[in-house]
Amino acid sequence: MNKLLRNKKNICRALLALAVVMLFTVMFALPAVAEEGEAAPAAAEAAADNTLGMKALAAGLAVGIAAAGGAIAMGLATAKSAEGIARQPEAEGKIRTTLMLGLVFIETAIIYALLVVILIIFVL
Asked: pLDDT tens for residues 36-85?
C-alpha cells in the first residue's frame, strides 16, 4: 500500500511540475504577442489582422498536451500489461491483444489532435 501511495505522490508531483512549466511557458510567451504602445495606424491594422503568433501558440500547446497525455497513457498501459502478464502468463495472448488495441486508440487520439492543429493553422 505504501508503494502505491508513493507512486501516486510521484505522479502528482510530476503533474504539478508539468503544470508549472506550462504556466511559465504561457507567461513568457504572452509578451511576444503583446501590442506595442505607440504605433502607426497602418501598422496597428496590420498587427490586428496578424493571428499567426496565436495560432502557433495554440498549435504548440495542443500537440504538446496530446503527446504528453498519449505518452503517459501508453506508458501506464504497457506497465499494467506487463504486470498482468507477470501475474498470469497463461493469459498473455489476450492481454497483449487488448494492449495493442488500447495503444491504437491512444495513438488515434493523438492523431486527431494533430488534425485539429492542422485545421487551426491552415483553416482558421
From this structure: 655 555 555 665 556 777 888 888 899 999 999 999 999 999 999 999 99
Within 8 A by CB and 6+ apart from 103, the residues are 74, 77, 78
| The three three-digit cell numbers of residue 35, written as one number | 501590442
* Residue found by looking up cell 505522479 in the block: 11
DSSP notation for 38-100: S--HHHHHHHHH--HHHHHHHHHHHHHHHHHHHHHHHHHHHHHHHHHHHH-GGGHHHHHHHHH
